[in-house]
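#struct-pred

JT: dropping the chains for the assembly here, can someone run the whole complex?
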Amino acid sequence: QITLQESGPTLVKPTQTLTLTCTYSGFSLSSDTVGVGWFRQPPGMALEWLAFIHWNGDRRYSPSLKTRLTIAKDPSRNQVVLTMTNMDSVDTATYFCARGTTDFDYWGRGTLVTVSS
Amino acid sequence: DIQLTQSPSTLSASVGDRVTITCRASQSISTWLAWYQQQPGKAPKLLIYKASSLQSGVPSRFSGSGSGTEFTLNINSLQPDDFATYYCQQYNSHSPWTFGQGTKVEIK
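RK: done, full complex below.
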């Protein structure tokens, strides 16, 4: 059974750095030819892709956010970590991680992150 | 970046109706297009991948078609569980993973 679960703070202050962890099970990021992506969805708005890490370590970032994002994987702990620097109120959103490559077949439930002082 | 434009933004329909949602890409993406369904407060669910392949476990009333820049998602005989928001998503190696703005299917 494949599962993913996001964890991290629910509230961050402006200018702080957000660190989110995606803990997965049922597949391997060291051998299976898949990757894990991070996405977000502001309240009432559309989905937005943020970052992706492939099983072979290849990393991709959204061009509009690449200077603020870092994605890393720890296959020994079955985790993928996303950091986003310099958080602002416009970054308030539900953040999801998902497994896939060209499309994403398993998703976590998401975690709502609010940016407020 | 490759932009995806969905139409309509909102669609009112009744149980049993056939509905069609369109997704247009700003440049050719071959068949690298997926469709997702999202219920309020839930994660997206993959319905269709590679433009026309039905994801395992998804009812056969869902179908996808298209290539290049124009794609459609059809839902035959709309069921109560189908009232949701639908997103298309493209993959291109130079401009990966963008989504359309969504189409909300609501009860007429």
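JT: nice. Chain A is about 0% helix and 50% strand. The interface with chain B takes residues 37, 46-49, 52, 60, 63, 96, 98, 102-105, 107-110 of chain A (CB under 8 Å).
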